[in-house]
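Let's do one together. I've listed all components of the complex below, 1090 residues spread over three lines.
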Amino acid sequence: MITKFTSDHEWVRLEGDVAIVGITSYAAEQLGDVVYVELPAIGKAVTQGGDMAVVESAKAASDVYAPISGEIVAVNDDLTGNPQLVNDGAEAQGWFCKIKPSNPADLDALMSAQEYQAFLEGKS
Amino acid sequence: MTQLRSTRGVSGGAADFETVSGSRGGLQATWLLFEYGAVDRSGVDLPAPKGRPDRLGGLARTAPIGVPGLSEPEAVRHYVRLSQRNTAIDLGVFPLGSCTMKHNPRLNERMARLDGFADIHPLQPVSTVQGALALMQELSRWLTSLTGMPAVALSPKAGAHGELCGMLAIRQALIARGEGETRRRVLVPSAAHGTNPATAAACGFIVDEVPGTEDGRVDVEAFKAKLGPDVAAVMLTNPNTCGLFERDVKAIADLIHEAGGYFYCDGANYNAIVGRVRPGDLGVDAMHINLHKTFSTPHGGGGPGAGPTVLSERLAPFAPVPYVVADGEGFKLVEHVEGQEFGRMVAFHGQMGMFVRALAYMMSHGADGLRQVAEDAVLNANYVLARLKDAFDAPFAKYGPCMHEALLSDKELRAHGLETVDLAKALIDEGFHPMTVYFPLVVHGAMLIEPTETESKTELDRFCDVMLALEARAEAGEVEFFKTSPRLAPVRRLDETRAARQPKLRWKAEEAAMKQAAE
Amino acid sequence: MRYLPLTQQDRAEMLARIGAASVDDLYTDVPAVARRTGLVDLPLHQGELQVERALKAMAAKNTPAGSTAFFVGAGAYRHHVPASVDHLIQRSEFLTTYTPYQPEIAQGTLQMLYEFQTQVALLTGMEVANASMWDGSTATAEAAMMATRVTKRGKVVLSGGLHPHYADVTKLICDANKIAVAACPAAIDGEAKVVDLIDSDTACVIVQTPNVFGTITDLAAIAEAAHAKGALLVAVFTECVSLGAVKSPGEMGADIVVGEGQSIGNALNFGGPYVGLFATREKFVRQMPGRLAGETVDADGKRGYVLTLSTREQHIRREKATSNICTNSGLCALAWSIHMTLLGEAGLRRLAVLNHERACDLADALGGVKGVEVLTPRFFNEFAIRLPKRADAVVETLAAKGVLAGVPFSRLAPGTGLDDVLLVAATETNTDDDVALYARELKKALA
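Okay, and this is what the predicted structure of the assembly comes out as:
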């Protein structure tokens, strides 16, 4: 179970034939207190780099892009009542949704944890 | 009764104690009107109905409404108490960048309340409102003369509605050229007001962002690269949201025209150039004018505004109805034009109450005074910039003068563990309304200061002295002082996260009853 | 110049501090061709007395409603506004403040908006309301767009009783966004016909009650039919006093309620500024346009108010915002809220009854004039009459006699074949004498 990262600060982790997706801890911290997450509908087809969800703080809204292409098979309903989960554990209980990948090779184009760390360090 | 007891103060004691009543000296405690009003109490005396049978066809209201009333003395007190919790331009410097909080002359208020303007109906016979049409015509003459544009649509209700007017006129012009389907892209600089991309999207256009340069202007090379046969228009604010004049505005106008597109100018910052520069001389095709900014009509805590939109020769035929035309001795109101596709963007004829106020202001200042308005507004902003640019980071100061507003960033503050919001809240305790914060988005922790021409040098010096003193406290590392500001305002810093996570958007009787039971 | 505090000496000192020789040095970024040296060809500055004289002369060329027997409605209504309303809205702290971006020093405006939102929600029978729109017509167009976002559908159906201006504004915005519009032909009592035009792509039906002809409609069946096909019901009103006498749209199943609030607290003003009211169900709030005030607590745990759910709005979401609206109608909303507070439920209900009774008196009086037919079957304070000749000609004739008789329907919608239809409104401001004078002069005009 390897976690991969995008330059737009999403993470994706393949568990069996389903990928779990969320925003990175770095993104959650940049955003501040998350107040709302707009999740996609189950069954929706998403394409890598295309719109998938929206995450909001009191004063900002950020689009969250699909890290891989596929179909949404589950969403984290707990976020609706408790968006704080994203701040508490962006890369654990604050996951957004699960995607059934249509093209497993999509993952190859993404960054490893080390590469993402280096990417963040390069930014600052 | 005379109070036959003289007083003499005793110093000592602290001000931070809780009062029993919840009031703090002259600042009275407040409650929601729902917490003490009653549905059977009223501040209005009305005659008893005759009790005749109704003709409501069985649709008479039976359910209670639940809106409480107050007697007149209670109502007056309720709203005066609320008013004490606001700051206002009448109380002090309100340098909210991009908002042009200038003095609102009271002559304007008196004129707008004349029965001949306030007590006339938009649909009463045109023969009975000739003075109103004359006023609209006169306002149009002032606006077109000042801007050097041939036509103006008066009906837009606010700035964003004016943007909609201009962009829909552009859309109609494109349709008339047979390019309504092909020219779909609108170029919007990254520093633009949020209303610009929102308006373009509301007109069905696709928004394409143009980056800026290091000196706070549009990147003309990047702009050029984005031009193409699918471009409908550029929406450019000038003077721009960084408070700077777009030096290359003529080149941008020529380029967009050569590419077959139109030049929409956001006129929110027109106050800096009124009487000195005519947008018509810059190649503008459409520009809204916020009467509530440049022409002094009051902001009223969030409107009403008014956004008359001036149009070039090319766009004038695509203006919305209604409009006023001279008709022999008098005036006529054109409310329908056969075959004209734009149609109508609002019921009736626009913000007449604002037209009266704006014209009263224009006539008071005259051509000479309006030019002085722009010059003093620019002078005041540059003075503030000159006084603050060494203590704070002023990202564009080295590239030349600003226009009507001075832009700072929070770079210096961040070095001390503080940011823009902290300075803003500390300014509140000093009696100043903060500047515009975190806008434009292109500058980190932006602080946009627009003093306007109606501030005296004395007031500006007080404001700058306070800014410098606060900067010194930041420098001294007084982080807690800032983080706990404001302490002297009617309330402390408010929890905006909580408000957004558990939205509570109205009072509810059931909730209030539960709360009371719990207590 | 009385509005400019700087003296020549101030200007000189400030220029010296800036390091500029003259103010011209501050305008060097302006292209040379656009730098104007002379004055624009307009009159020079004038004193208060002179400006007042000139504007009073213009005002004197209008006929104020209060100087006539006045029966004009069709979207704007003449009501009595208590003296304290205008006094209070002219308090500096309300009149000369901005949108409450700094909540600690704007609690007055924010609490007022919170109360306004509550009052609007209660009156319309809805769960939530926003802090106001520009007017009823633009609120209607916004409601149509909101319904397309909620339902993700692309068609809007308009009733035949929707105010023609409201229909025009809604079509304009829908056209630009490639939203199909199906409009029922003008009909005095045909709101329910919208049901026939609902299909699987219909986002909403937009119906008005009382409609432009004054007809009141039971919305329950329309709501049911719309909901059965997955469409929303948008209910519109132009006369908010009617809500004191008639079942609320919320009670009848509306999903979005929009309307004009001018009647309460605001003068006629020749068409503006007015105040758009906008209410909906809680579950749709994130798709709602406009500002919202919400309750929260401050750092000491004390109750306070802020603007909230701002991520819907243009200054944050830009091209993805729910609307481009920024400045709304804050001060008109304040006037509305104060007037509503002065009335209270009992006062509003009585005011509504007085309006209705006056309209019934008028319908009896005009219906008694030979050749005049009252067309509206159920009404609140406004109804349509058919005249034996063109309505616009009759209106001109009566205006000369001191009676402003109403709005010819043809003025709102020319070419609909209803040139003989006149829209007539009565309010608590009309006296028995006004009604009698109208009937008498109408009789003469038709003789």
